[in-house]
Amino acid sequence: MLKDITIGQFFPGQSSIHRLDPRVKIIITFVFIVIIFFVRSFIGYGMILAYMALAVILSGVPVRYMLKGLKPLLFIIALTFFINIFFTSGEKVIFKFWFFTLTQEGLLQGVFMGLRLIFLVAGTSLLTLTTSPIALTDGIEHLLQPLKIFRFPVHELAMMMTIALRFIPTLLEETDKIMKAQMARGADFESGNLFQRAKALVPLLVPLFISAFRRADELAMAMESRCYRGGENRTRMKIPKTASRDYIALAVTFLLVLGILLNSYL
Amino acid sequence: MSIVVENLTHVYMKGSPFESVALDDVSFEIQDGEFVGLIGHTGSGKSTLVQHLNGLLKPTKGRIIVDNIDITERTKSSKWLRQHVGLVFQYPEHQLFEETVYLDIAFGPKNLNLSNDEVEKRVREAMELVGLDYDSLKDRSPFEISGGQRRRVAIAGVLAMKPKVLILDEPTAGLDPKGRDEILGQIKDLHRERGMTIILVSHSMEDIAKLVDRIIVMNNSRIALMGKPEEVFSHVDELQEMGLDIPQIAHVIRGLRERGMDVPENIYTVEQAAAAILAMVRGRSNA
Ligand SMILES: Nc1ncnc2c1ncn2[C@@H]1O[C@H](COP(=O)(O)OP(=O)(O)O)[C@@H](O)[C@H]1O
Ligand SMILES: [Mg+2]
What we know:
- The complex is a heterodimer of chains A (266) and B (287).
- Chain A is mainly α.
- Chain A is built from ten helices and two strands, in the order ααααββαααααα.
- Chain A has a two-stranded antiparallel sheet.
- Chain A is flat.
- The N and C termini of chain A lie far apart (50 Å).
- With 287 residues, chain B is of the alpha/beta class.
- Chain B is 41% helix and 22% strand.
- In chain B, the strands form two sheets. Chain B has a six-stranded mixed sheet with strand order 6-7-8-3-9-10, with helices on both faces. Chain B has a four-stranded antiparallel sheet with strand order 2-1-4-5, with helices on one face.
- The longest helix of chain B is centred in the middle third of the chain and has 18 residues.
- The interface between A and B is medium-sized, with 22 and 26 residues.
- The structure holds adenosine-5'-diphosphate and magnesium ion (MG).
- Magnesium ion binds next to helix 1 of chain B.
- The site of adenosine-5'-diphosphate has 12 residues of chain B, from strand 2 and helix 1.
């Protein structure tokens, strides 16, 4: 039941998108997110859609699988859409009902905001779907290297992220198991009022915390007994390399940025 | 209570790239009062199978009938089902959460909305069944007692619901030999003295051989062998191919027979073997 969550999940594969240098992928995603906020017309969204479609097709991630990841956000997207539709003031009134007024400007604004959210989520989930957590944190660590000048603990931060990401599936599995074990003793997590439901979580949360602390303890012990110490003088097994596909991806992204800026400001 | 499983198939995470078939067209029957051993290599689908029997998992395909009620159809009966089919998970001590042993064991009965007196009676009884001393342990924290005792507290937590069928998923995993023998002995008593229907999941033939009436062997999500222990143990080669083994003493007996000694074939516990070898030696010296 908990396994249905796909946001932040990795979809293993060997496509050209999967094999992009994670640093390049992170930069591209960042640029993509920023450029979405510069889009002002349907033509602009057309370009974004074409770019996104190209990336999804190349990645080999089934479209249905991507859309499933959007499902939990449907509510937020719908809410943004409706708030924008009804609370944007404008001239051309389409209809009036009670204290709602629907204007053409509002409708347009609502559609744009909805599209913006959808592409934001789709873009970032494509990044996590095609990049393994390890590659992702490796990329972040490399990109943050300059911050070391300010004594920012880049390596430690990356290590913490790696460990946290690594343990998400483990904790979900554990939650599933403990939940089932308590249900076998007649626990009921699904009915009752808010207060009763919160109380019903105690038999789940206590064992979960205990096991999380136990795991943390064991992991620290295992790392220490292998003489782990972070930061200075550590060498890497995998040194990231850029290839021609990385430059092609950057070039295509540059074209998208150019197209959108021209479309919005000319 | 009898259990009938018909053409049960279970697919985890259907429709995702991580889809995996954990059970593939599994059918069997368990009679009231039977003691059945479910054995198979890690990942063969044992845990998935037993979680279907009390409705924690729903079949992708197939039917499960408990006490003549099709549990795949009636979803409302889950409380009834959980009470009558008790399931002890693997490493059950990981699910303890209360401040005292008493409160933890009482969690199940309280969920059944029983009176306080009845709850107390059941806790006392359940602790006795697993060999825990009620007066000295009831107020201790479940986190400060020994590992073997914690395991028993967890088992008592399920027994306190008074199930008719008891399923134990690898109840001896990670215990020392003494703790293992004690728990297996108590499970045996539950069957002999209380007439409980018991399903014991294990990957150790040694544990199962001396206890059960019948063995179901799982391999790669399917049932590979099913029958009385001696029938199952006669398929030595097949079992070894599945990464399982017959009890060590059965190897000894086979060796003796190959060397022409006159011992009976169907021996799979040390006690039986000792008796048979003694009988053989006496027979020789008399002759
Ligand atoms: N919650 C789950 N989600 C996905 N796959 C699972 C889950 N539980 C078990 N599996 C898979 O199903 C198969 C059978 O597992 P399981 O029933 O636990 O076997 P056993 O108890 O015999 O070791 C394994 O391949 C396992 O990886
Ligand atoms: Mg198992």
